[in-house]
């Protein structure tokens, strides 16, 4: 199989950077993009704010406590989408194989590029230069033989950086890569790996596929592939996002009553993800996996899109009441999802949905 040349481009603190670009009084200050209200979560934080430990998906109340001098600005998705379209137009000058992940990041397959440039590195440098000149914003980029490695690389020299993982360097790079950098390795999985003495991708390679799949299910095989730097997924330019979701495997099995707090946390995280991607759905999904590995799902569709993380949680609460299992049933995993998205700019607010 011929090697691909993949670039992952990630705009730096995108929403906050747009606000700072458009309002000179915000430059150099800790800017937080978030709605007002006790249930609001941070959509984006400028790099000045990140020095105080602020980050997206954090509660706005927590952000204000960590950084009292932060300037809070409500999001303006119309402006963010307009800038995103500018950036995507720049991508289109180099390749038609563009897979957007959200308003501020995308994969590009530049194995063959329209400009006839000699290397993917040169393409990435040109794209970053044109983004800066035409939008006044900075972007970081990662160049690698596949999507998985390109995404890791784009985060390596943030902000306003470029990092290249050449095919001949993949093996050495992966040996020392912390296992927590591998997508899918969350807090619980990382803890289990640490207990097994697995701290790096190189450590993962010391275990065979059968052993890892016994410990982690199908993810064990994917984990081993990633530890070798393997990812055969193509860049899919026509792929439409069907659902955004968040899952959590618990450190210990929980009964139904104990799920409310983690589900609220997941709803906040999901809403922050939806805001970042600019995706607001009409259908809400609850997923549960019992201690015996039985998977249960409940869903409900509404006439309009949800308008806040709080209303998302209220919908999940309603679905939770529809789980008809014995009270003693324990659950090892829960997840929340949202789908049936409106077209950008056509989001309708469903304000009275849960007030009946």
TrEMBL record:
Question: Is DNA-binding set as a keyword in this record?
Answer: yes
EC code(s) of this entry = 2.7.7.7
The prosthetic group or cofactor this protein requires is: Mg(2+)
Q: What reaction gets catalysed by this protein? A: DNA(n) + a 2'-deoxyribonucleoside 5'-triphosphate = DNA(n+1) + diphosphate
GO CC entries: cytosol
Q: Name one GO biological process term.
A: SOS response
Q: Where is the UmuC domain?
A: 6-186
Site positions for Substrate discrimination = 15
Which molecular function terms from Gene Ontology are attached? Answer: damaged DNA binding; DNA-directed DNA polymerase activity; magnesium ion binding
InterPro entries in UniProt: DNA/RNA_pol_sf, DNA_pol_Y-fam_lit_finger_sf, DNA_pol_Y-fam_little_finger, DNA_polymerase-Y, DNApol_IV, IMS_HHH_1, Rev_trsase/Diguanyl_cyclase, UmuC
Q: How is the cofactor bound?
A: Binds 2 magnesium ions per subunit.
Swiss-Prot/TrEMBL keywords:
Cytoplasm, DNA damage, DNA repair, DNA replication, DNA-binding, DNA-directed DNA polymerase, Magnesium, Metal-binding, Mutator protein, Nucleotidyltransferase, Transferase
Pfam families given in the database record: IMS (PF00817), IMS_C (PF11799), IMS_HHH_1 (PF21999)
Residues noted as binding Mg(2+) in the record, renumbered to the chain: 10, 104
The active site lies at: 105
Compartmental location:
Cytoplasm
Family matches, as Gene3D superfamilies:
3.30.70.270, 3.40.1170.60, 5' to 3' exonuclease, C-terminal subdomain (1.10.150.20), DNA polymerase, Y-family, little finger domain (3.30.1490.100)
Keyword DNA repair listed? The answer is yes
Superkingdom of origin organism = Bacteria
Quaternary structure per UniProt? Monomer.
Q: Which family does it belong to?
A: Belongs to the DNA polymerase type-Y family.
Q: Explain the purpose of this protein.
A: Poorly processive, error-prone DNA polymerase involved in untargeted mutagenesis. Copies undamaged DNA at stalled replication forks, which arise in vivo from mismatched or misaligned primer ends. These misaligned primers can be extended by PolIV. Exhibits no 3'-5' exonuclease (proofreading) activity. May be involved in translesional synthesis, in conjunction with the beta clamp from PolIII.
State what protein this is by name: DNA polymerase IV
């Amino acid at each position: 199989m011929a090697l691909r040349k993949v670039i992952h481009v990630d705009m730096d603190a995108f929403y906050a950077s747009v606000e700072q670009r458009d309002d000179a009084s915000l430059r150099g200050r800790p800017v937080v993009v978030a709605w007002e209200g006790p249930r609001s979560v941070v959509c984006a934080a400028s790099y000045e704010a990140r020095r105080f430990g602020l980050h997206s998906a954090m509660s706005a109340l927590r952000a204000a406590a960590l950084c009292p001098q932060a300037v809070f600005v409500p999001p303006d998705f119309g402006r963010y989408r307009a800038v995103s379209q500018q950036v995507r137009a720049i991508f289109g000058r180099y390749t038609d194989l563009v897979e957007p992940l959200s308003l501020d990041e995308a994969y590009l397959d530049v194995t063959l590029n329209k400009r006839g440039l000699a290397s993917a590195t040169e393409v990435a440098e040109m794209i970053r230069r044109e983004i800066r000149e035409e939008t006044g914003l900075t972007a970081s980029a990662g160049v690698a033989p596949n999507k998985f490695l390109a995404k890791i690389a784009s985060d390596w020299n943030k902000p306003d950086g470029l990092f290249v993982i050449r095919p001949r360097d993949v093996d050495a790079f992966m040996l020392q890569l912390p296992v927590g950098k591998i997508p899918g390795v969350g807090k619980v999985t990382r803890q289990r790996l640490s207990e097994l003495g697995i701290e790096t991708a190189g450590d993962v390679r010391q275990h065979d596929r059968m052993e890892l799949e016994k410990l982690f299910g199908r993810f064990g095989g994917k984990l081993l592939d990633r530890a070798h730097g393997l990812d055969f997924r193509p860049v899919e330019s026509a792929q439409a996002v069907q659902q955004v979701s968040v899952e959590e495997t618990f450190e210990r099995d929980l009964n139904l009553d104990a799920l409310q707090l983690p589900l609220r946390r997941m709803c906040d995280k999901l809403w922050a993800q939806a805001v970042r991607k600019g995706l607001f759905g009409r259908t809400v999904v609850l997923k549960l996996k019992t201690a015996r590995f039985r998977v249960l799902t409940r869903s409900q569709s509404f006439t309009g899109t949800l308008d806040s993380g709080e209303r998302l949680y209220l919908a999940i609460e309603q679905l939770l009441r529809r789980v008809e299992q014995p009270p003693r049933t324990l659950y090892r995993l829960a997840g929340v999802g949202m789908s049936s998205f409106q077209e950008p700019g056509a989001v309708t607010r469903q304000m009275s949905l849960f007030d009946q």
